[in-house]
Give the backbone structure.
Amino acid sequence: MRSPPQSISIVIPCFNEEAVIPILHSRLKESLEAIRIPFEVILVDDGSRDHSWEMLVQLHSEDPRFIAIKLSRNFGHQFALTCGLDHSSGEVVVIMDADLQDPPELIGDMIKKWSEGFDVVYGQRIERQGESLSKRLFAFSFYRIFQRLTGFALPRDTGDFRLLDRRALVALLALRERHRFIRGMVSWIGFPQTALQYARPQRAAGVTKYPFRKSLKLAIDALVSFSWAPLRLASLLGVVISAFAFVYIVVVVLLKIMGINFPGYTSLMASILLLGGVQLIVLGIIGEYVGRIFEQGQNRPLYLVDSIAGTPSFQGTDRSAPGARQPS
Ligand code: UDP
Ligand code: MG
């Protein structure tokens, strides 16, 4: 058994979350104070267009354990998360959503599991309340397709809600890839990991910030950055079509020898269209990878910070990004 951690950081990305910030604050404060470990909460405003930022700055001025970081624009959930993790300084770090779908009351249980010797404790949903059928179906199929295609055992039905200790976090932050699927990257690093099962409640307030389009993008990023399978699929398609063409040629030649002539126009059109279609699909798949190589090659920073209210509590190091201002 490890003794309890000396300090704990909570990292929470927020995008247009003004409706939940007050509830988030009170629930977090209550459950963290009950644990009796010094804590900091890092709230990353991912370019919100509502009053989230003003509320976060206000929160910081009332309670300096709450640190607010504002990104220069909306970079997306996984980037906001990365920014928060970069700035965290606790011995263990917990990643949560702002909407209280990841109950802060579970942090104590996560720390217990960590004391048993695990580096990563991830929340696993045994039940999802109040999420649309299509969202649940999408999540259900995604986890199963991902495992099939990548042969990589991603624990099913997990979100980003999890606890990592310093060792796991340092490993995770060493992965600076542009197309980030953080829960997959956490599995990839290895180290002892375990699940904490929980029933996922509804969003406390506000509406989802993950419309189908964003979920689909994350799913494609996940598949393409963890697997060659789509490229293999292209080769497989090539082999199958070539085999088919070969058989077809043999049959046509035999028919010709037997004196049966095959009028060509329709079958010619069909095969040209089929082959053209397949080639374009395959080009598209290759393009997905080439595009990613291009973006990775540009080597841009993953996010830019506009302002920071507060400094990381436990190490006293100022790791604010260049150009970051204190809010006026
Ligand atoms: N989020 C973000 N940037 C975005 C979209 C979402 O930081 O562009 C945050 C959001 O504020 C929330 C978390 O990501 O804390 C998860 O979003 P949400 O709860 O809307 O997703 P859902 O639970 O519906 O999948
Ligand atoms: Mg949510």
Observations:
- The longest strand covers residues 120-128.
- Strands lie at 8-14, 39-45, 66-71, 92-95, 120-128, 158-165, 193-200, 305-309.
- The chain has two domains: 8-226+302-309, 229-298.
- The longest helix spans residues 265-298.
